[in-house]
Write a structure and sequence with these properties.
The structure holds two protein chains of two kinds. Chain A is an alpha+beta fold. Chain A is built from 21 helices and 22 strands. By secondary structure, chain B is α/β, with parallel strands linked by helices. Chain B contains 14 helices and 13 strands. In chain B, the strands form two sheets. Chain B has a seven-stranded mixed beta sheet. Chain B has a six-stranded mixed beta sheet with strand order 9-10-8-11-12-13, with helices on both faces. Chain B starts with 6 loop residues before the first strand and ends in a 5-residue tail after the last helix. Classes of the chains: A alpha+beta, B alpha/beta. Chains A and B meet through helix 7, helix 18 and helix 21 of A and helix 3, helix 4, helix 5, helix 13 and helix 14 of B.
Chain lengths: 621, 454
């Protein structure tokens, strides 16, 4: 084997959504970084649907952006349609979603990687992680080159021992048309990791020219685009529509009659698939009373005729796929360009990593994305960013960071991963957060930009714009408190519909009324009108929902109390008196780092927590 | 266990003792006590470790008990926190009333071993004691768990499970509407959610109303006998007890102090409390007896107002009637064997039973009237679910509060995430009785009830 010679501080394996963020973060924090990928033409590839964002996922993208990541900027400049979801609901559950131009997304990300001075982007297949006495020292490639690295971030996606199923046929592969990564998961097993098997799937890609869109309902993008990044302006683009089609009884009949040729139903597939992303055959079997299932036909890009039928993933044989797609209105003459398939792949049980995403057993080794049993581009990107930051911090001998459940969806996700058993690929939902009202898209910068700045990832430009927002918020807040409306001020009273006003009221109090919005007040006060829309939105939310927000802040304060009690890594849970055996085993398996984390492990009772707390205090004294 | 809030619990064992102590620990202790304590002398600032005499009164100014209060400035207390102890008269009713007072003020009922736990956390106990505390918490929570398990088969826990399931169904819908706006799920319909929540509020209210009944089965009921001297209180007491216990003479006012006797009526453990008679008097001994009787009326679960049916109505009968205007009362017309004169119309509208202690006539009817007063007549107890534990009652009350907030929010057209937040709180309170509802449970329900997946 040849030693490449250059000493990297951070090596990132895999250039998907996790790998790109990890490598960019490390390089931007000043580390000599290497990004190794099996294929330079598939950087930041969207293996499944050509879309970014949605509920909770859009929140994650905003968080990545606030910390100084790339995903939001990348989608803002390559999207072909924007939609804001839940606009009629409250601010915490409004979310942004965009259709991406798949090839443009990938190409732009590659260009961004290439223009980062301290980042080397190379093609190579990693077959093993090299360690010396429990510490990572680099990676070995199939091509016969050894790369030295102080830290290594693994982002293997669906490639480790990937097995693609199309009908009862299966073959080794990491994604349609690409080889699997063999050997790496064996190496991880040898290093002492518990490796599990996951499953996911994707629908066929259809030829747009063979679809009769005139028979289908169109879904347009929003008139007013709200981009993801706090730095972006609304892009000036002609948006592409999606279309809605439906399955019917005939479709279901075809599927039911072919279940014996499904790898899922004939027991060929051993991995567990996600409940939130069932294949069309699963839907038909599990919901027999439904006579139709809806699908969004999403365009894959401006320079592509391929169309992605969402919610129609399948591993039935190609002839059955063609038959059932063609049974749908509008798709009577459809041509399949790539058949749908299911894929099984290896992941590493995430209870073996720390909340910093570093492996407990191998110092300097970090895991992010599907290797941690998650699914989704946004989930991967957020983890990649955190892993990249912590790898860079370690390589430059600085302390790692963690993100709390009260701080970000990223924090909720990582905490769930390291404390809960993996039953299916993990996807983010807003319901997973107990502090949902605080973790909004609109305030992601207020939650995280200072953290990003402290590790050196937030650029001067982003920092300046953040500080301007904070200054504006301060000015706006005092303006709302100071400005008063008196009963004598009949013009203002009338315009706000405050008939019968007896005493003077501040703007703030007026804004608490459900029928009055910030737009009303802006008309009355030029000082307020000068503030940016994002600032006005913040002021409106924090005033209108103050009661709810206050209650959550109190919950957070209680939560932090336990979160601040650290459990030393040297603590032997087996020696603690007064714990049941079941609790002891759980604690030994998960190795929680704080008392709060211990409390979130299933089966750890409040009484057990109290016993643990007493033990910790005893140690300190 | 959280150590930043203020907790309250009895520090003396349950049962009838001469005195009981209710202990408060945490930053709000002194403020909470000051709110309800009326010192008999002038008290500007409470000096630490001094006893203060006075009365504890509820929010409406009604006295609950005559008490002694001691404030312990941190760290010179058992828990090293701000501690106030209220020394009150023994007896479950009084202790319960005092706890209710502080719980309604926002304090939390202490967990098993929590005072000791706090003492340790604040460095009050040494290392050897620490192990003992751990064992104590372990064993007490185990004991509580065993009690909880024994109720798993019980009707109460089934009823609570039903509430949990119903609330969970609504939460599942709400979370699905929030997280899957573009999926094929039933369209948002909050009127249905509202009516479901409303229904559960009603059911919880019915359950909460049984707490009194449930409580009297566990803690017993105190029944006070009042009436003018020689109205026949002691005779009735003896008749019910079946033995000569109180001193009975023909000289009015022989019973000089309250006498307490225990027996069961219709399965309810009852303490019959005889009082000195009511009459206008200048005799200081008797005046003291009357004062005590008036005080006792307010803490009694039921009053038996005795009127001698063989004699015309007397001013003192009306005095007694006045005294028990605010409590559950049964009018007992005594000496029915001696014939009956017409009662004053002011006694109309009160449940009435005529008895003769001498012949035993009407005693059965009186027993029935007592049991039905506590909603414990045979039929209704067998069929209904009752709340017997303070802890459960507390959880249901808080759950209902959260649900009522939801109704208000829905009427204000608040968005779903706010509804969800209160709904989760409501489920959290029920979890004290029925076990936890995790996010995983909710997600599982969403994916099994709705066809989701893009």
């Amino acid at each position: 084997m040849a030693d490449y010679g250059k000493k990297y501080q951070v090596i990132v394996v895999g250039a998907g959504h996790a790998g790109c963020e990890a490598a960019l973060a490390a390089a931007r924090m000043g580390c000599r970084t290497l990004l190794l990928t099996m294929g330079l033409d598939t950087v930041a590839m969207m293996s499944c649907n050509p879309a970014i964002g949605g509920l909770a996922k859009g929140h994650l993208v905003h968080e990545v952006d606030a910390l100084g990541g790339e995903m939001a900027l990348n989608i803002d400049s390559t999207a072909i349609q924007f939609r804001r979801l839940n606009t009629r609901k409250g601010p915490a559950v409004r979310a942004t979603r965009a259709q991406a131009d798949r090839m443009a997304y990938s190409a732009r990300m590659k260009r961004v990687l290439e223009s980062e001075p301290s980042l080397d982007l190379k093609q190579g297949v990693v077959v093993s992680v090299e360690t010396v006495s429990g510490r990572v020292v680099g990676v070995k490639t199939r091509e016969g080159v050894d790369f030295y690295g102080r830290t290594v971030v693994l982002t293997t996606g669906t490639f480790m021992r990937g097995l693609i199923h199309v009908g009862l046929n299966n073959y080794s592969g990491g994604r349609a048309g690409e080889p699997a990564s063999l050997g790496l998961s064996d190496c991880l097993r040898d290093l002492g990791f518990a490796v599990g098997r996951s499953k996911t799937g994707t629908p066929a890609r259809l030829a747009g020219r063979s679809i009769d869109f005139s028979k289908l309902e169109r879904q347009e993008g929003d008139d007013r685009i709200k981009p993801f990044s706090f730095l972006s302006n609304a892009p000036d683009i002609v948006q592409a529509p999606c279309h809605i089609a439906y399955t019917n009884e005939q479709t279901h009949e075809i599927i039911r009659n072919s279940l014996d040729r499904s790898p899922l139903y004939s027991g060929v597939i051993e991995g567990v698939g996600p409940r939130y992303c069932p294949s069309i055959e699963d839907k038909v079997v599990r919901f027999p009373e439904r006579n139709a299932h809806q699908t969004f036909l999403e365009p894959e890009g401006r320079n592509s005729d391929e169309v992605y039928p969402s919610g129609m993933s399948t591993s039935l044989p190609p002839d059955v796929q063609l038959l059932f797609y063609r049974s749908m209105v509008g798709l009577e003459n459809v041509e399949i360009m790539r058949p749908g398939y299911a894929i099984e792949y290896d992941f590493v049980e995430p209870t073996q990593i720390r909340p910093t995403l570093e492996a407990r057993e191998v110092a300097g080794l970090f895991h992010a994305g599907q290797i941690n049993g998650t699914s989704g581009y946004e989930e991967a990107a957020a983890q990649g960013l955190l892993a990249g930051i912590n790898a860079a911090l370690q390589a430059t001998e600085r302390s790692p960071i963690t993100v709390g459940r009260d701080q970000a969806y990223l924090g909720v996700m990582v905490d769930d991963l390291v404390t809960q058993p993996t039953l299916e690929p993990y996807r983010m939902f807003t319901s997973r957060s107990e502090y949902r009202l605080l973790l909004r898209e609109d305030n992601a910068d207020q939650r995280l930009t200072e953290l990003g700045r402290s590790v050196g990832l937030v650029s001067d430009q982003r920092w300046r714009s953040y500080q301007e927002k904070m200054d504006g918020l301060g000015r706006g807040r005092s303006r709302l408190a100071e400005q008063k409306i008196t009963p004598a001020d009949s013009a203002k009273v009338d315009s706000l519909g405050l008939k019968g006003l007896r005493n003077g009221v501040s703007f703030e109090e007026v804004l608490r009324r459900p029928e009055i919005g910030m737009d009303h007040l802006v008309k009355l006060d030029p000082d307020l009108a000068r503030l940016a829309p994002a600032i006005l939105e913040q002021l409106e939310i924090s005033t209108k929902y103050e009661g709810y927000i206050q209650r959550q802040l109190e919950q957070v304060a209680r939560f932090r109390e336990l979160e601040q009690v650290r459990i030393p890594g040297t603590l032997d849970f087996a020696t603690i008196e007064g714990l049941s055996n079941e609790v002891r085993e759980k604690l030994i398996e998960v190795q929680p780092e704080t008392l709060g984390q211990a409390g979130r492990i299933q089966g750890v009772t409040p009484a057990a927590l109290a016993v643990l707390n007493i033990h910790l205090r005893k140690k300190i004294r | 266990m959280n150590c930043s809030d203020t907790i309250v619990a009895p520090a003396t064992p349950p049962g009838e003792g001469g005195l009981a102590v209710v202990r408060l620990s945490g930053p709000d202790s002194l403020a909470a006590v000051r709110k309800f304590f009326r010192p008999s002398g002038q008290v500007k600032e409470f000096a630490s470790h001094h006893l203060y005499h006075g009365f504890l009164a509820d929010g409406r100014g009604q006295n609950i008990d005559e008490v002694m209060v001691v404030y312990m400035q941190p760290p010179r207390s058992y828990t090293c926190e701000e501690v106030v102890e209220v020394h009150c008269h023994g007896g479950q009713q009084i202790v319960r009333a005092i706890l209710d007072l502080f719980l309604s003020h926002g304090l939390r009922l202490a967990q098993p071993g929590e005072f000791t736990y706090r003492a340790f956390m604040n460095g009050r106990l040494d290392l050897t004691q620490a192990e003992a505390v751990a064992r104590l918490i372990h064993s007490r929570s185990e004991a509580a768990r065993v009690v909880a398990l024994s109720q798993v088969e019980g009707r109460l826990s089934r009823a609570i499970h039903l509430f949990t399931e119903k609330l969970r169904r609504e939460l599942v819908l709400i979370e699905a509407w929030i997280d899957f706006p573009e999926e094929d799920i039933p369209t948002q319909d909050t009127t249905r959610v509202r009516s479901q929540i409303y229904e559960i509020i009603e059911e919880i209210s019915i359950l909460l109303n049984t707490f009194e009944t449930g409580r009297v089965f566990v803690e017993g009921a105190s029944i006070l006998l009042i009436g003018r001297p020689n109205a026949g209180k002691s005779s009735l007491l003896n008749a019910l007890l079946g033995e000569e216990r109180a001193i009975v003479t023909d000289i009015p006012g022989t019973t000089r102090d309250t006498l307490e006797e225990g027996l069961t009526i219709g399965g309810i453990p009852v303490r019959l409390i005889d009082t000195a008679g009511f009459r206008d008097s200048c005799d200081p001994v008797e005046l003291e007896g009357v004062r005590r009787a008036k005080e006792k009326i307010l803490s009694a679960d039921l009053v038996l107002l005795l009127v001698d049916g063989s004699r015309p109505c007397h001013e003192e009968d009306l005095l007694a009637l006045q005294a028990c205007a605010e409590v559950d009362t049964i009018l007992v017309v005594t000496k029915s064997d001696l014939g009956c004169v017409d009662l004053d119309p002011r006694f109309a509208g009160i449940r009435r039973v005529a008895v003769s202690a001498k012949t035993g006539d009407g005693l059965g009817l009186l027993r029935e009237a007592v049991t039905s007063n506590f909603g414990a007549d045979k039929g209704s107890v067998d069929r209904s679910v009752i709340v017997t534990e303070k802890r459960h009652n507390d959880a249901l009350l808080k759950c209902r509060e959260s649900l009522q907030r939801i109704i208000v929010s829905l009427d204000k057209q608040a968005s779903l995430e706010f509804i969800s937040s209160d709904l989760r709180d409501a489920l959290g309170f029920l979890s004290v009785i029925s076990g936890e509802t995790t996010t995983e449970d909710i997600l599982g329900d969403i994916f099994s009830s709705f066809c989701i997946g893009k």
